[in-house]
């Protein structure tokens, strides 16, 4: 995931610590591994609250609320500069934004049809595929096989009451978009300073998702309680984890960060049990374990290379 900054834009008076300085001081007192775990659980709690919103709004409308809330905060903190951008910069930024919108939309559609842990585990095949595709080691075939076993265990062979083929399809598309998000994030990082590339992408993603979100949500989007929950989802799913990840990456190796992030499917399953009462079968836990093990293995192989 791409990190989000809460630093310099807030610290404007050298003699007095601003909100960014206070947040950094608080973050510095937490070990970097703790920051990563907090970021993981923040994302999954945000997804849990988003799924609760599905009883009042369709997934596309919830996605619109989440991205719009995140984009407003991002634009205030890291406003992108459009002057002087080349057509290639525009292409990368707009492609980044469209991928971000499609990734969130398909993931939320999967979330509406699957338990949280299952949806996140399948989506995690995207970054796993990027890691394995960059390798030519035979050992990485083991991680592909483990991931394939996980998908086979998750397929609804007689378990259509908790897992649907449509949900699996949406999760696989979300995973493919996540892989594209990783590649486009790297390209945007080379063309945009700081986090302005992510800010530009989030603004573009709002434009992409707005027609669908507004059409499906309608007047319900203006209900104050739904707006507040949507803003909370945006904070928990985007702003807070991006901030924590950025602080963690400054104090720990990227490989260790990647290993910790591999725990995300397990964290999603745990939040699903605690927040949504989504009790998984033993077979589903085994499938999630296979995908987590595949992600851990590919990350460790990358570190050794």
UniProtKB/TrEMBL annotation:
GO terms for cellular component: plasma membrane. PANTHER family: INNER MEMBRANE TRANSPORTER (PTHR32322), S-ADENOSYLMETHIONINE_S-ADENOSYLHOMOCYSTEINE TRANSPORTER (PTHR32322:SF18). InterPro entries: AA-Vitamin_Transporters, EamA_dom, EmrE-like. This is Inner membrane transporter RhtA. Pfam families: EamA. The lineage of its organism: Bacteria, Bacillati, Actinomycetota, Actinomycetes, Streptosporangiales. The chain crosses the membrane at residues 56-78, 90-108, 114-134, 141-158, 164-184, 196-214, 226-244, 256-276, 282-299. It is found in: Cell membrane. The keyword Mitochondrion does not apply. It comes from Nonomuraea muscovyensis.
